[in-house]
Specification:
Blueprint lengths: L1 H27 L2 H22 L9 H16 L10 H27 L5 H27 L4 H31 L2 H23 L1
Helix pairs in contact: 1-4, 1-5, 2-3, 2-4, 2-7, 3-7, 4-6, 5-6
Length: 207
């Protein structure tokens, strides 16, 4: 349906933006600092859900959300990655990543609440295709601007791209299903909390 395509197009654009900005953030800031700012994206998702889906947040839920954000800062404060000097450019990129990530998280919830009639798998497939198209167009634009195309770069990043594509499809599918079962005030804190915990564990053991 048209609504499914529009939701998938919106998600694809936000996902492509989030991926591109995240990579730029990784060059400017530490991984854990990105995780902390990504947690702030939950506020964007909650605000959009409240405005567009009438999924209001009760006052009793606000302290828990604040504690979750505070916990992410405490978990990361003494870890590598927060020692990076925060420049104006890195701050702008982190804020852009927060906004793009928050809108990207909001899109599956929007689709789930619209009850468009299409299956979650169909929606996830369209999201994947739109995101891939946006990223490919962006990469080709960069190559054209630099005046050169480097096949060796494609060969080096291809395994990581495939792994990311598979995990992102699973993430979109599961997130859309969960978004249809839980209200925003429960879904986003749980989702972002687990995401931050896993990010900290990965940073501790793999970085």
């Amino acid at each position: 349906e048209r609504s499914t395509m529009l939701c998938a197009l919106f998600y694809g654009a936000m996902l492509a933006s989030n991926v591109a900005v995240w990579i730029m953030c990784a060059r400017e800031s530490g991984y854990l600092l990105i995780s902390v700012f990504s947690m702030m994206g939950m506020l964007v998702s909650l605000l959009c859900s409240s405005l567009f889906l009438n999924d209001s947040i009760r006052m009793i839920q606000l302290p828990g959300i604040v504690q979750l954000i505070g916990a992410s800062v405490v978990m990361c404060r003494h870890r590598r990655g927060l020692d990076t000097k925060l420049t104006r450019r890195s701050l702008i990129l982190l804020i852009a990543n927060t906004l793009a990530g928050g809108l990207c998280d909001f899109a599956p919830k929007l689709f789930a609440d619209m009850n468009a009639g299409d299956s979650t798998a169909v929606y996830s497939f369209y999201c994947y295709m739109f995101a891939a198209a946006f990223l490919l167009c962006g990469y080709m634009s960069i190559c054209r601007g630099n005046g050169r195309f480097q096949p060796s770069v494609i060969h080096r990043v291809f395994p990581f791209t495939c792994m990311m594509a598979v995990t992102q499809f699973i993430n979109t599918y599961a997130r859309t299903l969960a978004g249809g079962l839980l209200p925003a005030a429960q879904f986003y804190p749980v989702y972002k909390g687990l995401e931050t915990i896993l990010g900290v564990l990965m940073a501790a053991f793999m970085l």
